[in-house]
């Protein structure tokens, strides 16, 4: 196989992910509505939560809507990644995963292509949300949208790899509901998506440490900084390391035979 | 198996037909022995081995919401074909199966027989030398089954393709069909079906399969 064949396979996987996302328009709408509800309802109630508090990268106190927006970008990506891994479990159960696995391309390459393609698809609802968030006076600098792009893609790949690991571990489609309770909600709530880490520390030391150890916290911080044209090396370092570790684990964990061999007729 | 020919694996459920296909397609690793496809070992060079194979699985594997051409384009891409190659070969294969006019329709709109044809067209897109058909006629009515087999025979004739196919339906087999009899993972016989039937002292292929099934699960 020559490098150009790898490129063709990536473009094919990317095209399929986009075609499927177009078919699943309700998924796009719900991906957009969920963070908007948080922004319009939840954030409105907590508008004064950060009164007088300066949260980096901002030099002065900001409205809660502005604070929470990167966290909500994170939740769009998080849900999209989980949805994508759910579809992998579905593909595996339905058998269509076999088509991918009987390709002559290395499986690790195909899995990485799928992660990146899924990450790129999640950009559509993310930027849709950021655009609507402008109506709520969340007005980052225009260049910030571009600067945040690699951070959002990195976050999406990291969470996609986590989803891939879950898809490898989960035996049945029905068990995926548990992921919401045991993975998505803890990742989201035990992070700096809703409250600054300083506020978490004031509330409870162990919650603070849980948030600090959560890679999603650092991904959200990376998005927050880049969206406002700043860069946080620690946030980047942790997110990048977590991404690489999770990709490696996902590739190692992935068992092509799982649930596809010896199924009853 | 002989090149440029058709070989059927006949055996009851649980004989090991699908397991053998999973080994050939690298979904399972052999625990002992080796498998070579046109000189490429599936364990040491799986990519080269898989490139020789076109596979139609027992379970339907098309994306129902995508169109025929989108399904073929996806398959072509992950086989490493360029978009131009995918376009020309999709046209060639879909025309062969009489489905070119319906290329923009979602697969969901096709009946079961036509879906199977699309799966075969897809399996042939990268011009494999060996086509694997795992119970490809499951769920099809008699007319669709006959039509599918006619297509496969013409492929063998015109392209010099080798076809390895599995079935647990003896009525699908012609008397002169080359057959491997499988039972509980072992080969019970190999040769022309009529000769195997005669050697076993069975009345016909159905009786032969029934005797294999009863040996596999004595009760």
CATH names the topology of the largest domain in chain B as Rossmann fold
Strand order of the largest sheet of chain B: 4-5-6-1-7-8
CATH class of the largest domain in chain B: Alpha Beta
The main β sheet of chain A shows up as: none
Our estimate of the beta-strand percent of chain A is under 5%
Quick check: average pLDDT of chain A? 85
Structural class of chain A: mainly alpha
- How many strands, what sense, and barrel or not for the largest sheet of chain B? 6 strands, mixed
Kindly give the count of domains of chain B.
2
Helix amount of chain B: 40-55%
Choose one word for the global shape of chain A: globular
Report the C-alpha radius of gyration of chain B, rounded. Answer: 18 Å
Can you walk through the features of this model?
The complex is a heterodimer of chains A (265) and B (219). By secondary structure, chain A is an all-alpha fold. In chain A, 74% of the residues lie in helices and 0% in strands. Chain A is globular, with a radius of gyration of 19 Å. The model of chain A is unreliable at 260-265 (pLDDT under 50). Chain B folds into 2 domains: 1-52 and 128-219, Rossmann fold (3-Layer(aba) Sandwich), CATH 3.40.50.300; 62-127, no CATH class. In chain B, the strands form 2 sheets. In chain B, strands 4-5-6-1-7-8 form a 6-stranded mixed sheet, with helices on both faces. The longest helix of chain B has 18 residues, at 142-159. The A-B interface holds A 1, 4-6, 8-9, 11-13, 15-16, 19-20, 23, 94-96, 98-106, 110, 256-257, 260-263, 265 and B 13, 18-19, 22, 25-28, 46-48, 50-51, 53, 55, 57-63, 65-66, 70, 73-83.
